[in-house]
């Protein structure tokens, strides 16, 4: 906590555009932002965002009508393998604004609210390349990783050797939530928000997620 506080203070000093100081202020009480990005590929240093979506959460409510979404034009070509995943082609993004053009609106939408995501480190690394170009520092927002909450509720007390499944579809299935069109930024952000609200409810009620009980193999060899 102390290290994070010191880093935030250093980032405040390094902030190049003081009009973005609001990012360091606490957001509205009990509000979060579920966020997801689709990219030109999976190389964190080289690839770029081509689609981003963010949805506001207030308490246990998903404010789907209060959302941000944008298709953006990258500075590099889209990897053909990535097109197979998200379906966005060069012609789909050719006339879109750049990430630099949509980023100010996204940052004002996010504000100082904590960011919720599924394996959110990747999304943040992709976002922070552009954020640092704009304001000189990375996003200071607190981060909530839904797979971590899920792990604690399902596998926190599991014995050594337990097989762990943190797949997105598996989490949705355990929470009895619908699987929408995956690898669409808005759909993924919405499903992530649903996962967060579901996990939060279980955690607040002290409910864990059941896991299969494996019986030891019996020896039928006789003797």
UniProtKB/TrEMBL annotation:
<feature type="domain" description="Exonuclease">
    <location>
        <begin position="31"/>
        <end position="205"/>
    </location>
</feature>
<dbReference type="InterPro" id="IPR013520">
    <property type="entry name" value="Ribonucl_H"/>
</dbReference>
<dbReference type="Pfam" id="PF00929">
    <property type="entry name" value="RNase_T"/>
</dbReference>
<keyword id="KW-0378">Hydrolase</keyword>
<protein>
    <recommendedName>
        <fullName>DNA-directed DNA polymerase</fullName>
        <ecNumber>2.7.7.7</ecNumber>
    </recommendedName>
</protein>
<dbReference type="InterPro" id="IPR036397">
    <property type="entry name" value="RNaseH_sf"/>
</dbReference>
<dbReference type="GO" id="GO:0005829">
    <property type="term" value="C:cytosol"/>
</dbReference>
<comment type="subunit">
    <text>DNA polymerase III contains a core (composed of alpha, epsilon and theta chains) that associates with a tau subunit. This core dimerizes to form the POLIII' complex. PolIII' associates with the gamma complex (composed of gamma, delta, delta', psi and chi chains) and with the beta chain to form the complete DNA polymerase III complex.</text>
</comment>
<comment type="function">
    <text>DNA polymerase III is a complex, multichain enzyme responsible for most of the replicative synthesis in bacteria. The epsilon subunit contain the editing function and is a proofreading 3'-5' exonuclease.</text>
</comment>
<dbReference type="GO" id="GO:0003887">
    <property type="term" value="F:DNA-directed DNA polymerase activity"/>
</dbReference>
<keyword id="KW-0540">Nuclease</keyword>
<keyword id="KW-0269">Exonuclease</keyword>
<dbReference type="InterPro" id="IPR006054">
    <property type="entry name" value="DnaQ"/>
</dbReference>
<dbReference type="GO" id="GO:0008408">
    <property type="term" value="F:3'-5' exonuclease activity"/>
</dbReference>
<dbReference type="GO" id="GO:0003677">
    <property type="term" value="F:DNA binding"/>
</dbReference>
<dbReference type="InterPro" id="IPR012337">
    <property type="entry name" value="RNaseH-like_sf"/>
</dbReference>
<dbReference type="GO" id="GO:0006260">
    <property type="term" value="P:DNA replication"/>
</dbReference>
């Amino acid at each position: 906590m102390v290290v994070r506080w010191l880093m935030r203070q250093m980032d405040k000093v390094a902030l190049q555009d003081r009009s973005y100081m609001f990012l360091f202020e606490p957001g509205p009480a009990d509000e979060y932002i579920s966020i997801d990005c689709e990219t030109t590929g999976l190389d964190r240093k080289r690839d770029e965002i081509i689609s981003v979506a963010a949805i506001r959460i207030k308490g246990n409510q998903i404010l789907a009508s209060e959302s941000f979404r944008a298709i953006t034009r990258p500075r590099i070509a889209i990897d053909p393998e990535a097109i197979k995943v998200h379906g966005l082609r060069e012609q789909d993004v050719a006339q879109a604004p750049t990430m630099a053009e949509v980023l100010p609106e996204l940052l004002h939408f996010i504000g100082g609210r904590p960011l919720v995501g599924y394996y959110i480190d990747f999304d943040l690394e992709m976002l922070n390349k552009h954020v640092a170009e704009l304001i000189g520092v990375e996003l200071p927002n607190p981060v909530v990783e839904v797979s971590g909450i899920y792990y604690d509720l399902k596998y926190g007390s599991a014995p050594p050797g337990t097989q762990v499944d943190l797949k997105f579809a598996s989490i949705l299935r355990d929470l009895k939530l619908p699987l929408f069109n995956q690898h669409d930024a808005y759909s993924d952000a919405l499903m992530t928000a649903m996962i967060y609200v579901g996990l939060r409810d279980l955690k607040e009620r002290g409910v864990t997620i059941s896991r299969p009980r494996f019986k030891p193999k019996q020896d039928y060899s006789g003797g």
